[in-house]
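Sequence, please.
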């Protein structure tokens, strides 16, 4: 990622500082990201993955039902806002707490706007 190309000096996760900035860590292993996704899903009355987050993420994006579509929208909004927050932390100084990100995600879903 950015560290491998020399664009940033620190390869640790900007959210938890306990892992290398990889897509796998960002999407599955980071406690901050998992918390934001879990709480976002709960706020819109969707069940978060209970066990293995990898399998849970696959379950979130599969299917053609209205529930599956709602899960995909929530996941997309979550990933977008987490990535935006990550960039703000790497290149700027602003830091949002998980609760604020959840509010932004839920707000974007309830307003019908994509983030």
């Amino acid at each position: 990622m950015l560290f491998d190309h020399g664009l940033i000096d620190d390869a640790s996760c900007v959210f938890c500082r306990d892992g290398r900035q990889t897509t796998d860590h960002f999407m599955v292993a980071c406690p901050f990201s998992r918390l934001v996704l879990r709480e976002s899903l709960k706020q819109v009355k969707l069940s978060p993955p209970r066990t293995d987050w990898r399998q849970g993420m696959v379950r979130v994006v599969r299917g053609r039902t209205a529930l599956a579509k709602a899960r995909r929208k929530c996941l997309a909004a979550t990933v977008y806002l987490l990535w935006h927050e990550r960039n703000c932390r790497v290149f700027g100084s602003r830091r949002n707490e998980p609760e604020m990100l959840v509010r932004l995600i839920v707000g974007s879903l309830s307003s019908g706007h994509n983030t």
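The chain has a mean pLDDT of 82.
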